[in-house]
Each structure stands twice: as C-alpha cells, then as structure tokens.
Design a protein that fits this description.
With about 550 residues, this protein is an alpha+beta fold. It is built from eleven helices and 23 strands. The strands form nine sheets. Strands 1-2-7-6 form a four-stranded antiparallel β-sheet, with no helix packed on it. Helix 1 packs antiparallel against helix 2 and helix 3 packs across helix 4.
Length: about 550
C-alpha cells in the first residue's frame, strides 16, 4: 500500500512538471502560429503561399503534437490527486477480444475486462446460413447452449465458457446441411429446368446438339435450345476463320454445364456426363497460361481476346469452377473425376495469380481492376468504343468477392483485397444514386445513399463516360441519350461486399459470437458493446 501511494505521489509530481513545460511549449507554438498567420497576410488561396504555409507549419507541428500528448497526461492529473477511477479518460464498452472453439462442443469467449457479473443471455452463438454468392450471411442458425460457466484468465479478463449441443469441425466451422434441390442450383441463371422429366430431357438433348466442337456454348440459348440444332452456325460469335465460338459472356457455357450436370445427376445417362466433361475441358483449355480467360474461344481477333472481367465473365467462370471443384450438388457425381478436380485447382491458382498481378497501381498505390486486361502484360485494355482503359467500380467488386472466398489466401492476395476495399471507400460517391432518366443528370442527390462510377480515370479517379463515338467525357450528360440510359454508368456494386467485409468477412459455414444484450457489467458499471460480432476460430497453439 505504501509503495502504491509513493508511486502516485511521484507520478503526480512528474505530471505537474510536464504540464508546466507543456504550458511553455504551448505558448511558443501559439506564437509561431500567430507569426506564420501574419506573414501569410491572408492570401492563403494563392498556390505559392499555400506551399510556404506548409513549410512554415512544419516548424510548429512537432511542438503542437507534443502539447497534445502532454495535455492528455495533464487531464489525468486531477484524477490522480482525487484518487478517481478515470485517470486514463472515459472507459470504452467491454468488447469480445477472442472467441475460440476449444473443443468440438465447447466455445470460449474472452472479454476485454473482468466482469462483476455475467449474464449468458448477453451472448448468442450463431452460424451463417447464407451462401457467399448471396453476400448475405443470414445469421439465423442459432446454436443450442447447454451450460455456461466463467473463469478469469491470466490477464484478469473474464472468459465465458459455453457447452453447446452441436459439434463443430476441427477448424471451428459448421457446414450447412446439404440441400439437393434441382430448382435451387446455385449460379444457374438460365430457366432450363422445369421439373417435368420429359421436357427436361428434351431440353438437355437439344443442348447437346448446340455444344461447339471445342466443348463450349453460345450465350442466350434459352430460346434457341427449345429446338435441336440442325444446320448453320451454332454460335452468334465467329472466329477469324468463320467457325463457331464458345463464350463465357452472359453466363454462356457455365449455365449449360450446371444444367447438364443436374441432368446427369438425375438420370445417370452417360451422354450428359460426357458433355459436362467436355464443357469443363473447354473452360480449362481456353484459360491463358498467365491465368486469365478471354471472352470467347477460339480467338475472335478483337477485344474479346483480352482477359475479360467485363460483365463479370471471368469471375463467373472462376466461381463455377470453384463450385465444381468442391464437389457441390449437382457435381457430387463421377462426372468430375480426380484428374479434372486437380486441374481445376491448378487453374484457380493461376487465376488468382493473374488477378493479383493485374491489379492497377496508380500514383504508387494499388487500386482495383479494368474491365479488360492484356493476357501477357497484365495492362488494362480497351473493350468496346465506350469502354476505355480505366478502373472499374463494377467488375472489381466481383474480383474482390472471389479473392475473399479463398480459404487461405496468400499475403499478396490479402494485400490486393485490402487495397481494393480501401479504393472502394475512396471512390464512393456519397449521398448520390444512379438512375435512368429521360432528362437531367443520372447521378441524383439521395441522402444516405452511395453509388460508384462504372469507369474511373486511372490516376485521377474522375468518372469517365463515352458514347459510341469513343470520345471520353467527364460528364454523363455529354454523351448521347442512347448510351447515357442504355448502359450502367453508375451502380452500387461494391456496397454489399463492403458491408460483409466490415462485419463478418467470408462467412460460409462459419460460427459467430454476437452480443445481443447488455446485462453483464464490470465493477465500474461498464456494459458490453451491443451488436458486436466475433468469428469463432481455432485456439492459437503458438501462444
């Protein structure tokens, strides 16, 4: 007790001396700032004097910083003199600092301080029910708590121990029950499946006839594939020699793969399996050695041969291949053999490598991606006349979404994710929304809304717009009405991604501890931080 009292007295004296010195320093800093303001003569709007002001300000910034830091110590002096509990300022709400699955059915939640009393009803253990493609975690799978106890760790923090009915995996995940519903195939956007066996077989057989020699399909086949191909082109895309081209544009080829895999799953007819394998091989073959996918295959001889992020073409392929490789229904059959699964994983690794290497750096800072990139140099490239080399507010969102889904991303991939998320925030146009309108600006004021430009000028982050004449404009009102309202120049593409990045991160099969009430308190009456969410992980054995 004596030692503590002596320490407080010595600390009080040091603080008083520091405050006295700070007062002198503050006076010096104020004089420097006053002299600087007089020398500026009020002409701060002139560029040269702005530079001068910056240089002069450097003389007193250090002094002012020291004053600010010392002031914080001085504010605590009164508390030391009175013995108050607020010596370091106002307390922050108690937080969850760690949530770990220490056993298959045991979860420990560690708080940032010691609780005087803990109410188990303050914490909800919940698993995500949503798929990553939805960008909605759907935290609705509540775990059943059988018993709760508490202990205090070596750092005097309360640890709540929950014994649950469910059993978690060794990596602290809890997979969702497999749902094999042919009407709810993830990623299948074409309305091929009807549930009528005869009609579905007929559609599947028709699609077999529309498959190109290389194994792909054209886009927008829903109407044409009501009938089998008989003669003429199978595709609206033509190669340089006039041959049929398979495409990944507008969900082409991937939709057919998903539907035919479903049909093989239901019928076990070999012809559907062979078509699925041929379609997978088509996607693997058309991938460039560097890791990107063109829009069509074989080569068309124009912008379609660039790596195509445009309209999420490549990212759709990557997402479907990831889905196939993981053996999800309806690919939980022998349609995908071990050799193809191995090739798919290598293909995905190359795709990630290409994505990381093609991320645009502007003014020395990593940003996001263009809609098209060169397959060899990784540089941004032009697409159609109104799609110039730029940074895309649309396609970049799908790229980051994929990178975040990688189970154990490399340091380079993590860096790419962080940089792109930061760029999304920088590029956000606040209190604005995009809408199609016959007259007036398409970017309209809207409180608490955000939008992003489709294309940003590299290096300036200005919004870029262009009509069919290919001339770059910086106002959407300067292009013709057909392009102004016939193309998505603005949108909320990154918004849901930013939402989950700030809350759950990648969430499929993951379990969380969430603060849902504020009954628990520490000795000072401080409660838990309402709404806080913490992912439950494995214990760090290195510690």
């Amino acid at each position: 007790m004596y030692t503590r009292k002596l320490q407080k007295q010595q600390q009080l004296k040091r603080s008083q001396r520091a405050c006295s010195a700070a007062g002198k320093m503050k006076g010096f800093a104020e004089r420097v700032r006053t002299n600087d303001a007089m020398n500026r003569g009020g002409h701060v709007r002139r560029r040269t004097e702005q530079v001068t002001h910056t240089l002069r300000a450097a003389k007193w910034i250090g002094a002012l910083l020291l004053v600010s830091l010392t002031a914080a110590a001085c504010q605590g002096t009164a508390s030391l003199e009175t013995g108050g509990a607020a010596a370091v300022g106002a307390k922050q709400p108690l937080q969850i600092v760690k949530a770990e699955a220490v056993g298959a059915s045991t979860v420990e939640v560690t708080f940032s301080g010691k609780l005087a009393g803990f109410d188990p009803k303050d914490i909800s253990l919940v698993a995500a029910a949503g798929t990553w493609s939805e960008l909605d975690p759907k935290l609705t799978r509540f775990l059943t708590v059988q018993k709760t106890s508490t202990r205090v760790d070596a750092d005097s923090r309360t640890v709540a121990v929950f014994d649950i009915e469910e059993k978690l995996n060794p990596d602290a995940t809890m997979p969702r029950p497999a749902v094999k519903d042919p009407r709810k195939i993830p990623l299948l956007t074409a309305k091929y499946y009807t549930g009528n066996e005869a009609a579905d077989r007929k559609r599947a057989d028709n699609l077999l006839t529309w498959q190109t020699a290389e194994g792909g399909w054209d886009k927008a086949l829903e109407e044409r594939s009501k009938q089998p191909w008989s003669s003429g082109p199978k595709s609206t895309w033509r190669s340089k020699s006039g041959g049929d081209l398979g495409t990944i544009d507008n969900d082409g080829t991937t939709n057919e793969l998903l539907f035919l895999s479903l049909m093989y799953n239901e019928t076990k007819e070999a012809k559907y399996k062979e078509a699925v394998r041929k379609g997978i091989d088509f996607l693997l073959t058309m991938q460039y050695p560097s890791g990107g996918w063109p829009q069509v295959y074989p080569a068309r001889g124009n912008y379609s041969d660039y790596v195509t992020f445009n309209d999420n073409a490549m990212m759709r392929v990557v997402e479907v291949l990831q889905f196939i490789g993981q053996g999800h229904y309806p690919f939980d059959t022998d349609a995908v053999d071990a050799e193809r699964k191995s090739k798919i994983q290598k293909s995905l690794d190359r795709a990630t490598d290409y994505i990381v290497k093609s991320q645009i750096k502007a003014n020395g800072v990593l940003t996001a991606w263009c809609a098209q990139h060169d397959p060899v140099t990784y540089e941004p490239r032009k697409g159609r006349d109104y799609e110039h080399p730029s940074i895309s507010g649309s396609e970049s969102a799908a790229i980051v979404k994929y990178l975040m889904s990688i189970p154990n991303p490399s340091d380079e991939a993590r860096k790419a994710i962080d940089a792109a998320l930061q760029w999304f925030e920088t590029a956000r146009i606040k209190d604005t929304k995009w809408e199609k309108t016959p007259s007036g600006n398409n970017f309209v004021p809207a409180q608490n809304s955000s939008t992003w430009y489709r294309f940003y000028e590299i290096g300036t982050n200005k919004g870029m717009f262009s009509g069919r004449d290919g001339v770059i404009k910086y106002s959407v009102l300067e292009i013709e009405d057909e392009r102004r309202n016939g193309y998505a120049w603005g949108g909320t593409w990154p918004l849901p991604l930013l939402g989950v990045a700030k809350s759950t991160g990648y969430y499929e099969n993951r379990v969380y501890a969430r603060i849902v009430a504020e009954n628990s308190k520490d000795a000072g009456g401080q409660t838990l931080r309402m709404g806080e969410l913490k992912v439950i992980g494995k214990p760090d054995k290195a510690k």
